[in-house]
Amino acid sequence: MAKLTIYQKPTCSTCREAIKLVEASGHPYAAVNYYEKPFTKAQLKGLLKKAGLQAKDVLRTKEEIYKKLGLAGKNLTEDELIDLMIKHPDLIQRPIVEKGEKALLARPADTIKRLL
Length: 116
Prior knowledge:
This protein has a four-stranded mixed β-sheet, sandwiched between helices. It is of the alpha+beta class. The chain has helices spanning about 15-25, 40-50, 65-70, 80-85, and strands spanning about 5-10, 30-35, 95-100, 100-105. It has four helices and four strands. It has one domain (about 5-115): Glutaredoxin (3-Layer(aba) Sandwich), CATH 3.40.30.10.
Protein backbone atom coordinates (compact mmCIF):
# COMPACT_ATOMS: atom_id res chain seq x y z
CA MET A 1 0.00 0.00 0.00
CA ALA A 2 1.50 3.32 -1.10
CA LYS A 3 1.81 5.95 1.61
CA LEU A 4 -0.13 9.19 1.35
CA THR A 5 1.63 12.52 1.57
CA ILE A 6 -0.56 15.39 2.72
CA TYR A 7 0.81 18.83 1.86
CA GLN A 8 -0.87 21.08 4.36
CA LYS A 9 -0.93 24.02 6.74
CA PRO A 10 -1.47 22.80 10.32
CA THR A 11 -3.80 25.69 11.21
CA CYS A 12 -6.11 24.98 8.24
CA SER A 13 -9.37 23.35 9.32
CA THR A 14 -9.76 21.46 6.02
CA CYS A 15 -6.22 20.06 6.41
CA ARG A 16 -6.92 18.95 9.97
CA GLU A 17 -10.16 17.30 8.86
CA ALA A 18 -8.39 15.46 6.01
CA ILE A 19 -5.73 14.17 8.42
CA LYS A 20 -8.43 12.93 10.82
CA LEU A 21 -10.06 10.99 7.96
CA VAL A 22 -6.76 9.37 7.03
CA GLU A 23 -5.94 8.53 10.64
CA ALA A 24 -9.40 6.96 11.08
CA SER A 25 -8.79 4.82 7.98
CA GLY A 26 -5.50 3.50 9.36
CA HIS A 27 -3.75 4.35 6.09
CA PRO A 28 -0.06 5.30 6.52
CA TYR A 29 0.68 8.94 5.75
CA ALA A 30 3.15 11.75 6.10
CA ALA A 31 2.06 15.33 6.68
CA VAL A 32 4.24 18.04 5.16
CA ASN A 33 3.81 21.64 6.27
CA TYR A 34 4.67 23.43 3.03
CA TYR A 35 5.21 26.67 4.94
CA GLU A 36 8.14 25.08 6.79
CA LYS A 37 9.30 22.92 3.86
CA PRO A 38 8.37 24.95 0.77
CA PHE A 39 7.57 23.36 -2.56
CA THR A 40 10.19 23.43 -5.26
CA LYS A 41 8.95 24.50 -8.67
CA ALA A 42 9.44 20.97 -10.05
CA GLN A 43 7.62 19.44 -7.09
CA LEU A 44 4.58 21.73 -7.36
CA LYS A 45 4.42 21.27 -11.14
CA GLY A 46 4.63 17.49 -10.65
CA LEU A 47 1.81 17.47 -8.10
CA LEU A 48 -0.42 19.55 -10.35
CA LYS A 49 0.30 17.24 -13.28
CA LYS A 50 -0.53 14.14 -11.19
CA ALA A 51 -3.79 15.80 -10.13
CA GLY A 52 -4.68 16.91 -13.66
CA LEU A 53 -4.83 20.51 -12.47
CA GLN A 54 -3.39 23.81 -13.56
CA ALA A 55 -2.00 26.42 -11.20
CA LYS A 56 -5.13 28.57 -11.58
CA ASP A 57 -7.20 25.60 -10.32
CA VAL A 58 -5.47 25.73 -6.91
CA LEU A 59 -5.15 29.51 -6.64
CA ARG A 60 -6.65 30.98 -3.46
CA THR A 61 -8.38 34.09 -4.76
CA LYS A 62 -9.78 35.24 -1.40
CA GLU A 63 -6.40 35.69 0.26
CA GLU A 64 -5.11 39.16 1.07
CA ILE A 65 -1.89 38.52 -0.89
CA TYR A 66 -3.96 37.76 -4.01
CA LYS A 67 -5.59 41.18 -3.74
CA LYS A 68 -2.34 42.93 -2.75
CA LEU A 69 -0.56 41.55 -5.84
CA GLY A 70 -3.51 42.55 -8.06
CA LEU A 71 -3.73 39.05 -9.53
CA ALA A 72 -7.39 39.35 -10.53
CA GLY A 73 -6.49 41.75 -13.32
CA LYS A 74 -3.40 39.90 -14.55
CA ASN A 75 -3.14 37.24 -17.23
CA LEU A 76 -0.19 35.22 -15.92
CA THR A 77 1.39 32.14 -17.46
CA GLU A 78 1.42 28.79 -15.65
CA ASP A 79 5.08 29.25 -14.70
CA GLU A 80 4.49 32.78 -13.43
CA LEU A 81 1.61 31.58 -11.22
CA ILE A 82 3.67 28.68 -9.87
CA ASP A 83 6.56 31.05 -9.09
CA LEU A 84 4.16 33.30 -7.16
CA MET A 85 2.70 30.32 -5.28
CA ILE A 86 6.15 29.21 -4.20
CA LYS A 87 7.01 32.71 -3.05
CA HIS A 88 3.60 33.21 -1.37
CA PRO A 89 2.28 29.81 -0.14
CA ASP A 90 -0.98 31.42 1.04
CA LEU A 91 -1.93 31.44 -2.65
CA ILE A 92 -2.13 27.61 -2.73
CA GLN A 93 -5.39 25.78 -1.99
CA ARG A 94 -4.88 23.02 0.52
CA PRO A 95 -4.48 20.23 1.32
CA ILE A 96 -2.90 18.65 -1.72
CA VAL A 97 -2.65 14.89 -1.26
CA GLU A 98 -0.31 12.58 -3.15
CA LYS A 99 -0.31 8.80 -3.38
CA GLY A 100 2.06 7.20 -5.86
CA GLU A 101 1.27 8.54 -9.33
CA LYS A 102 -1.98 10.22 -8.23
CA ALA A 103 -2.67 13.48 -6.47
CA LEU A 104 -5.71 15.57 -5.67
CA LEU A 105 -6.83 18.75 -4.02
CA ALA A 106 -8.75 17.51 -0.97
CA ARG A 107 -11.43 20.18 -0.92
CA PRO A 108 -13.75 19.28 0.61
CA ALA A 109 -11.68 17.10 2.93
CA ASP A 110 -13.68 13.92 2.28
CA THR A 111 -12.47 13.83 -1.34
CA ILE A 112 -9.33 12.33 0.20
CA LYS A 113 -11.28 9.05 0.41
CA ARG A 114 -10.64 8.59 -3.33
CA LEU A 115 -7.01 7.82 -2.49
CA LEU A 116 -7.67 5.55 0.49
